[in-house]
Amino acid sequence: MNLIAAVDKNWAIGKDNKLLVQIPMDMKFFRETTTGKVVVMGRKTLESFPNGLPLKNRTNIVLTHNANYDGKGAIVVHSMEELREELKKYNSEDIYVIGGEQIYKALVDDCNVAHITKINYAYDADAYFPNLDEKPEWKITADSEEQTYFDLEFYFYKYEKVK
Predict the structure, then answer these.
(1) Are 59 and 89 in contact (CB under 8 A)?
(2) DSSP string over 9-28
(3) Closest among 77, 150, 97 to 120, alpha carbons compared
(4) Bridge partners, residue 3, by sequence
């Protein structure tokens, strides 16, 4: 399985259930990487999308403890056990964990690849991604040249779990 996220220099990913910043190149990378794939998220992440609707051209799986939750077309599961059963139906390489914080923390150890956009800025935040630089089993296997969006510098990194 894969993880995909944009993080700031402190591995922050969000504030008040919103992304810290929207960088068109990062959004394009996310869209191109996940289109046609399976995306796994928590309820709050789904609700942060326009009109709370699942992402187009992807299989959306939402984890929530709310038994009556309407995923508006997304597959809704209510426990990690149920999620793991559902994920067995798909090719592991086609599964992307897209947030938020609780989902990343719960599934990081099940993943082998992480696509991380690192933004060279520290935002005020209340949600964080697990710091892969502090986990010895994760190594950077690819990186991009410095990218810029107005005055923001950012990089695309690919982390892989070392076997």
Answers:
(1) no
(2) TT-EEEETTEES---HHHHH
(3) 150
(4) 97, 114
The whole-angstrom separation of Cα 110 and Cα 62 is 17
Distance CA(153)–CA(141), nearest Å, equals 20
- What CA–CA distance (Å, rounded) separates 43 from 21? 20
> Does the pTM exceed 0.85?
yes
Proportion of the chain above pLDDT 70, given as a percent: 100
In 3D space, the residue among 24, 18, 19 whose CA is nearest the CA of residue 7 turns out to be: 19
Ordered by where they begin, the domains of the chain are: 2-161 (3.40.430.10)
Residue 163 has pLDDT above 90, yes or no: no
By the 10 Å C-beta count (0-12 exposed, 13-18 middle, 19+ buried), 110 is classed as middle
For 41-52, the pLDDT digits (tens) are 999 999 999 999
| Rounded Cα–Cα distance for residues 163 and 92 (Å) | 16
113-162 pLDDT, tens digit per residue, is 999 999 999 999 999 999 999 999 999 999 999 999 999 999 999 999 99
∠ CA 147-126-13 to the nearest 5 degrees? 25
The pair of structure tokens assigned to 150 is 């107005």
